[in-house]
Amino acid sequence: xxxxxxxxxxxxxxxxxxxxxxxxxxxxxxxxxxxxxxxxxxxxxxxxxxxxxxxxxxxxxxxxxxxxxxxxxxxxxxxxxxxxxxxxxxxxxxxxxxxxxxxxxxxxxxxxxxxxxxxxxxxxxxxxxxxxxxxxxxxxxxxxxxxxxxxxxxxxxxxxxxxxxxxxxxxxxxxxxxxxxxxxxxxxxxxxxxxxxxxxxxxxxxxxxxxxxxxxxxxxxxxxxxxxxxxxxxxxxxxxxxxxxxxxxxxxxxxxxxxxxxxxxxxxxxxxxxxxxxxxxxxxxxxxxxxxxxxxxxxxxxxxxxxxxxxxxxxxxxxxxxxxxxxxxxxxxxxxxxxxxxxxxxxxxxxxxxxxxxxxxxxxxxxxxxxxxxxxxxxxxxxxxxxxxxxxxxxxxxxxx
Length: 401
Description:
Blueprint: H1 2-30, H2 100-103, H3 105-123, H4 130-142, H5 147-164, H6 169-184, E1 202-207, H7 214-227, E2 232-237, H8 244-255, E3 258-261, H9 268-282, E4 286-291, H10 299-312, E5 320-326, H11 331-343, E6 348-352, H12 362-370, E7 374-378, E8 386-388, H13 391-399
Parallel strand pairs: 1-4, 1-5, 2-3, 2-4, 5-6, 6-7
Antiparallel strand pairs: 7-8
Helix pairs in contact: 3-4, 3-6, 3-13, 4-5, 5-6, 6-13, 7-8, 9-10, 11-12
């Protein structure tokens, strides 16, 4: 019995020892290894922050540049750069208009007297037969005089040559001069109407196709008026052509004329209306309105030109409507003239580039076509090359000395 009890005790002890050994082994296997020690890392310097992340600056003593001692001399004074000043354009004094065409006669005769010399040469022939008179007709037609005026001139010359009999060069020249003056017309009022008796200012509207020199002519006309002692306001109603308003304003600034302008592509009738309004308020003598160049084949655009005229006349009637034509276009200029005359009442013609063509007969043709006189002619690119048309000086330039 004691032996059995002893065996049981030994078995219990052995089992307890084995159980403890197994538990200890499992615990040793489940424990993770300790983490390695982290190395010491030096952080990089902090970058400056901006905006909301910026730190509040610390108050530190600061010195101005004047307080810093610089080696080798006294402190350097810091100067502010000068502010550029915009100088007003210098006002020019245009040449007086009296006798301006006479002064420009040489330039005109340089290209125009081919017509006169050709006619004088033909008339100086010993026998003036039918063939010669046909040559005279061809010469006049080539110079764009027109069919009806040419027939009138040739008939007058034939009659007077028959009566005169012998013909000296001086007699022929005088004869041709008289007949040409009849065609051009000496009894027509060619004054540009800018001084209405009952009000101020006078209102002048300038019309024409782009490329004829319309805006330039408006600027030159302002110079002519200023030279005669008038004050002028310019209306830049050509709002469709790029830089047209700038071009006109430059012309105005040169003679001290104020320019009314609107936004590019804006309503030209509105600009024209404001121009007359400004002219009244400023008390100037003349308002010149430069209109947009119209393609005379476009009905809608021509109707718009009529609208400009109607809007301006809400202030006062127009005193002048000047049609600008390029003398070098010849008969095509007559087509333009007809269409413009249907839209607005043309009162006068300005022929530009007359020094660049030998077809001086366009003066006669366009007057006959419209029934209105040529009042101004352009004889070059210079600022003072626009002259009042004088029939005697023009004919003298045609036939030469």
